[in-house]
Specification:
Layout: E1 19-23, E2 26-30, H1 47-54, H2 70-76, H3 97-103, H4 119-123, E3 150-154, E4 163-167, E5 171-174, E6 186-189, E7 195-201, E8 210-215, E9 220-224, E10 236-239, E11 245-251, E12 260-265, E13 270-275, E14 284-285
Antiparallel strand pairs: 1-2, 3-4, 4-5, 5-6, 7-8, 8-9, 9-10, 11-12, 12-13, 13-14
Protein backbone atom coordinates (compact mmCIF):
# COMPACT_ATOMS: atom_id res chain seq x y z
CA UNK A 1 0.00 0.00 0.00
CA UNK A 2 1.24 3.50 -0.82
CA UNK A 3 0.59 6.72 1.03
CA UNK A 4 -1.91 9.02 -0.68
CA UNK A 5 -2.14 11.74 1.93
CA UNK A 6 -5.87 11.05 2.23
CA UNK A 7 -8.04 8.78 4.28
CA UNK A 8 -6.00 9.00 7.46
CA UNK A 9 -8.73 10.62 9.51
CA UNK A 10 -10.03 8.47 12.32
CA UNK A 11 -13.36 10.33 12.61
CA UNK A 12 -15.84 9.67 9.82
CA UNK A 13 -18.34 12.43 9.14
CA UNK A 14 -21.75 11.43 7.86
CA UNK A 15 -25.29 11.19 9.19
CA UNK A 16 -24.50 11.10 12.86
CA UNK A 17 -26.05 12.69 15.90
CA UNK A 18 -24.08 15.75 17.08
CA UNK A 19 -21.83 14.93 20.02
CA UNK A 20 -19.71 16.70 22.61
CA UNK A 21 -15.94 16.32 22.78
CA UNK A 22 -14.47 17.38 26.11
CA UNK A 23 -10.85 18.53 26.23
CA UNK A 24 -8.94 20.34 28.99
CA UNK A 25 -10.27 23.90 29.09
CA UNK A 26 -12.18 23.26 25.87
CA UNK A 27 -15.59 21.82 25.02
CA UNK A 28 -16.51 21.68 21.36
CA UNK A 29 -19.88 20.94 19.81
CA UNK A 30 -19.00 19.22 16.55
CA UNK A 31 -21.74 19.10 13.94
CA UNK A 32 -21.33 16.89 10.86
CA UNK A 33 -20.68 18.88 7.71
CA UNK A 34 -19.74 22.06 9.56
CA UNK A 35 -16.40 23.79 9.95
CA UNK A 36 -14.60 21.08 11.89
CA UNK A 37 -14.94 18.64 8.98
CA UNK A 38 -12.41 20.75 7.07
CA UNK A 39 -8.64 20.37 6.97
CA UNK A 40 -7.39 23.92 7.51
CA UNK A 41 -3.67 23.14 7.24
CA UNK A 42 -3.90 20.53 4.47
CA UNK A 43 -2.04 17.82 6.39
CA UNK A 44 -4.56 15.04 5.73
CA UNK A 45 -6.28 15.25 9.12
CA UNK A 46 -9.55 17.06 9.73
CA UNK A 47 -9.52 19.92 12.21
CA UNK A 48 -11.87 17.93 14.45
CA UNK A 49 -9.54 14.94 14.58
CA UNK A 50 -6.49 17.12 15.18
CA UNK A 51 -8.13 18.73 18.22
CA UNK A 52 -10.10 15.82 19.64
CA UNK A 53 -7.95 12.78 18.87
CA UNK A 54 -4.36 13.57 17.91
CA UNK A 55 -3.88 16.78 19.96
CA UNK A 56 -2.07 18.33 16.99
CA UNK A 57 -2.35 21.91 15.76
CA UNK A 58 -5.11 22.20 13.11
CA UNK A 59 -3.38 25.29 11.70
CA UNK A 60 0.10 23.76 11.46
CA UNK A 61 0.63 20.82 9.06
CA UNK A 62 3.78 19.76 10.97
CA UNK A 63 3.08 20.16 14.67
CA UNK A 64 6.40 18.70 15.89
CA UNK A 65 8.49 20.51 13.24
CA UNK A 66 10.29 17.42 11.90
CA UNK A 67 9.27 17.96 8.24
CA UNK A 68 6.78 15.07 8.31
CA UNK A 69 3.14 16.08 7.91
CA UNK A 70 0.87 15.26 10.83
CA UNK A 71 -1.36 13.16 8.56
CA UNK A 72 1.59 11.17 7.25
CA UNK A 73 2.80 10.46 10.79
CA UNK A 74 -0.65 9.25 11.84
CA UNK A 75 -0.90 7.11 8.68
CA UNK A 76 2.47 5.52 9.46
CA UNK A 77 1.83 5.07 13.17
CA UNK A 78 4.45 7.66 14.16
CA UNK A 79 3.94 10.24 16.90
CA UNK A 80 3.04 13.63 15.34
CA UNK A 81 3.90 15.35 18.62
CA UNK A 82 7.49 14.07 18.86
CA UNK A 83 10.19 14.99 16.32
CA UNK A 84 13.00 12.70 15.21
CA UNK A 85 11.45 10.21 12.76
CA UNK A 86 12.09 12.03 9.47
CA UNK A 87 15.54 10.55 8.84
CA UNK A 88 14.78 7.04 10.04
CA UNK A 89 14.14 4.28 7.52
CA UNK A 90 11.26 2.38 9.11
CA UNK A 91 11.02 -0.32 6.41
CA UNK A 92 14.77 -0.50 5.61
CA UNK A 93 14.25 0.04 1.87
CA UNK A 94 16.92 2.72 1.41
CA UNK A 95 14.50 5.66 1.66
CA UNK A 96 14.12 7.57 4.90
CA UNK A 97 10.66 8.48 6.12
CA UNK A 98 10.90 12.02 4.70
CA UNK A 99 11.75 10.66 1.25
CA UNK A 100 8.86 8.19 1.51
CA UNK A 101 6.47 11.04 2.32
CA UNK A 102 7.73 13.25 -0.49
CA UNK A 103 7.67 10.36 -2.96
CA UNK A 104 4.25 9.08 -1.95
CA UNK A 105 5.45 5.64 -0.84
CA UNK A 106 4.58 3.75 2.33
CA UNK A 107 7.25 4.10 5.04
CA UNK A 108 6.24 0.70 6.44
CA UNK A 109 6.28 -1.21 3.12
CA UNK A 110 9.67 -1.74 1.50
CA UNK A 111 8.08 -2.70 -1.85
CA UNK A 112 5.11 -0.41 -2.33
CA UNK A 113 4.03 -1.79 -5.70
CA UNK A 114 4.91 -5.44 -4.91
CA UNK A 115 7.10 -5.90 -7.99
CA UNK A 116 10.01 -7.51 -6.16
CA UNK A 117 12.16 -4.36 -6.11
CA UNK A 118 12.53 -2.34 -2.93
CA UNK A 119 11.34 1.26 -3.21
CA UNK A 120 14.83 2.66 -2.61
CA UNK A 121 16.28 0.50 -5.38
CA UNK A 122 13.57 1.63 -7.79
CA UNK A 123 14.36 5.26 -7.07
CA UNK A 124 17.90 4.57 -8.27
CA UNK A 125 16.77 3.14 -11.60
CA UNK A 126 16.66 5.52 -14.51
CA UNK A 127 13.19 4.67 -15.81
CA UNK A 128 11.46 3.15 -12.83
CA UNK A 129 9.36 4.32 -9.91
CA UNK A 130 7.90 2.51 -6.90
CA UNK A 131 4.47 2.71 -8.56
CA UNK A 132 5.58 1.01 -11.80
CA UNK A 133 6.98 -2.42 -12.56
CA UNK A 134 10.29 -2.85 -14.33
CA UNK A 135 12.86 -0.25 -15.31
CA UNK A 136 16.34 -0.08 -16.78
CA UNK A 137 19.53 0.06 -14.82
CA UNK A 138 21.27 3.43 -15.09
CA UNK A 139 24.61 3.98 -16.73
CA UNK A 140 27.71 3.79 -14.57
CA UNK A 141 27.90 6.47 -11.90
CA UNK A 142 31.55 5.95 -10.98
CA UNK A 143 34.24 4.20 -13.00
CA UNK A 144 37.40 5.50 -11.34
CA UNK A 145 40.38 3.41 -10.20
CA UNK A 146 39.75 0.91 -7.45
CA UNK A 147 36.02 1.46 -7.39
CA UNK A 148 33.96 2.31 -4.33
CA UNK A 149 34.58 0.08 -1.34
CA UNK A 150 31.33 0.96 0.42
CA UNK A 151 28.10 2.42 -0.96
CA UNK A 152 25.21 3.91 1.01
CA UNK A 153 21.93 5.61 0.07
CA UNK A 154 20.47 8.56 1.99
CA UNK A 155 18.82 11.92 1.38
CA UNK A 156 21.75 14.18 2.26
CA UNK A 157 20.34 17.50 1.04
CA UNK A 158 16.73 17.19 2.30
CA UNK A 159 15.13 17.38 -1.14
CA UNK A 160 13.28 14.07 -0.79
CA UNK A 161 15.43 12.27 -3.38
CA UNK A 162 17.84 9.42 -2.65
CA UNK A 163 21.50 10.42 -2.89
CA UNK A 164 24.51 8.08 -3.20
CA UNK A 165 27.54 7.99 -0.92
CA UNK A 166 30.58 5.90 -1.76
CA UNK A 167 33.90 5.43 -0.05
CA UNK A 168 37.26 3.81 -0.72
CA UNK A 169 40.34 6.03 -0.48
CA UNK A 170 38.05 9.02 -0.37
CA UNK A 171 34.42 9.66 0.59
CA UNK A 172 32.17 11.26 -2.01
CA UNK A 173 28.49 11.68 -2.76
CA UNK A 174 26.19 12.27 -5.72
CA UNK A 175 22.95 14.23 -5.43
CA UNK A 176 19.98 12.31 -6.85
CA UNK A 177 17.24 14.03 -8.83
CA UNK A 178 14.58 11.49 -7.83
CA UNK A 179 14.39 10.02 -11.33
CA UNK A 180 17.64 8.05 -11.46
CA UNK A 181 19.88 10.95 -12.46
CA UNK A 182 22.83 12.04 -10.35
CA UNK A 183 24.99 15.13 -10.05
CA UNK A 184 28.74 15.33 -10.50
CA UNK A 185 30.89 13.86 -7.74
CA UNK A 186 31.06 15.93 -4.55
CA UNK A 187 34.07 15.02 -2.42
CA UNK A 188 33.61 14.97 1.34
CA UNK A 189 37.18 13.97 2.23
CA UNK A 190 40.30 12.42 0.73
CA UNK A 191 41.91 11.95 4.14
CA UNK A 192 41.08 8.24 4.47
CA UNK A 193 42.73 5.00 3.38
CA UNK A 194 40.61 1.96 2.46
CA UNK A 195 37.24 2.70 4.05
CA UNK A 196 35.67 -0.53 5.28
CA UNK A 197 32.84 0.91 7.36
CA UNK A 198 30.43 3.70 6.40
CA UNK A 199 27.27 4.68 8.26
CA UNK A 200 24.70 7.48 7.93
CA UNK A 201 23.26 8.82 11.19
CA UNK A 202 22.35 12.09 12.91
CA UNK A 203 25.12 12.40 15.50
CA UNK A 204 24.61 15.99 16.64
CA UNK A 205 20.81 16.00 17.02
CA UNK A 206 20.03 18.57 14.31
CA UNK A 207 17.92 16.10 12.23
CA UNK A 208 20.47 16.16 9.37
CA UNK A 209 22.19 12.92 8.30
CA UNK A 210 25.89 12.94 9.19
CA UNK A 211 28.48 10.34 8.15
CA UNK A 212 30.75 8.03 10.15
CA UNK A 213 33.63 6.17 8.53
CA UNK A 214 36.06 3.45 9.59
CA UNK A 215 39.18 3.26 7.42
CA UNK A 216 41.32 0.15 7.71
CA UNK A 217 44.75 1.29 6.53
CA UNK A 218 45.02 4.50 8.60
CA UNK A 219 43.17 3.22 11.71
CA UNK A 220 40.69 6.11 11.66
CA UNK A 221 37.17 6.19 13.01
CA UNK A 222 35.85 9.63 12.10
CA UNK A 223 32.68 11.56 11.39
CA UNK A 224 31.57 14.43 9.21
CA UNK A 225 28.90 17.02 10.07
CA UNK A 226 26.21 17.67 7.44
CA UNK A 227 24.66 21.15 7.49
CA UNK A 228 21.42 19.77 6.02
CA UNK A 229 22.12 20.71 2.42
CA UNK A 230 24.84 18.16 1.71
CA UNK A 231 27.73 20.39 2.73
CA UNK A 232 30.03 18.51 5.10
CA UNK A 233 32.48 19.91 7.60
CA UNK A 234 36.06 18.71 8.06
CA UNK A 235 36.92 15.29 9.40
CA UNK A 236 36.31 14.97 13.16
CA UNK A 237 38.37 12.21 14.74
CA UNK A 238 36.61 9.76 17.04
CA UNK A 239 39.60 7.41 17.34
CA UNK A 240 42.87 6.64 15.57
CA UNK A 241 44.13 4.06 18.05
CA UNK A 242 42.17 0.99 16.93
CA UNK A 243 44.24 -1.30 14.72
CA UNK A 244 42.46 -1.97 11.42
CA UNK A 245 38.85 -0.86 12.02
CA UNK A 246 36.51 -2.92 9.85
CA UNK A 247 33.02 -1.61 10.43
CA UNK A 248 31.11 1.16 12.15
CA UNK A 249 27.56 1.53 13.43
CA UNK A 250 25.59 3.92 15.63
CA UNK A 251 22.87 3.49 18.25
CA UNK A 252 21.85 5.07 21.55
CA UNK A 253 23.62 2.66 23.90
CA UNK A 254 23.30 4.63 27.14
CA UNK A 255 19.70 5.88 26.72
CA UNK A 256 20.64 9.56 26.81
CA UNK A 257 19.03 10.40 23.47
CA UNK A 258 22.30 10.63 21.51
CA UNK A 259 23.57 8.10 18.96
CA UNK A 260 26.77 6.46 20.19
CA UNK A 261 29.34 4.89 17.84
CA UNK A 262 30.35 1.22 17.70
CA UNK A 263 33.29 -0.21 15.79
CA UNK A 264 35.01 -3.54 15.22
CA UNK A 265 38.75 -3.86 14.63
CA UNK A 266 40.40 -6.82 12.96
CA UNK A 267 43.90 -6.56 14.35
CA UNK A 268 42.69 -5.72 17.86
CA UNK A 269 40.02 -8.45 17.75
CA UNK A 270 37.63 -6.22 19.64
CA UNK A 271 34.27 -4.51 19.58
CA UNK A 272 34.21 -1.08 21.22
CA UNK A 273 31.83 1.82 21.53
CA UNK A 274 32.37 5.54 21.88
CA UNK A 275 30.06 7.67 23.97
CA UNK A 276 28.38 10.63 22.28
CA UNK A 277 27.75 13.60 24.57
CA UNK A 278 25.45 15.28 22.03
CA UNK A 279 28.06 17.68 20.65
CA UNK A 280 31.18 17.15 18.57
CA UNK A 281 32.90 15.34 21.43
CA UNK A 282 32.03 11.76 20.55
CA UNK A 283 35.02 9.80 21.66
CA UNK A 284 35.08 8.13 25.09
CA UNK A 285 35.80 4.46 24.44
CA UNK A 286 33.87 1.91 26.49
Amino acid sequence: MCYSGRGVSAVKHGSFVPFLVALPALVLLILPGQAFAQDSDGDGLTDADEIAIHLTDPNNPDTDGDRLLDGFEVFAGFDPLVAGEALLDADADGLNNLAEQNGGTDPLDEDCDDDGLEDGEERLRAQSHPFTIGGKLPTAIYTGPGGPGRVRVADLNADGAADLIFAHNQISWYAGDGAGGFSAEQIITTDVLFVRGLYVVDLDGDLDPDLISASYEDDKIAWYVNDGSGNFGPQIMISNTKDGPLDVFAADLDADGDADVLSTSRQDDDLVWFENDGSENTGRSS
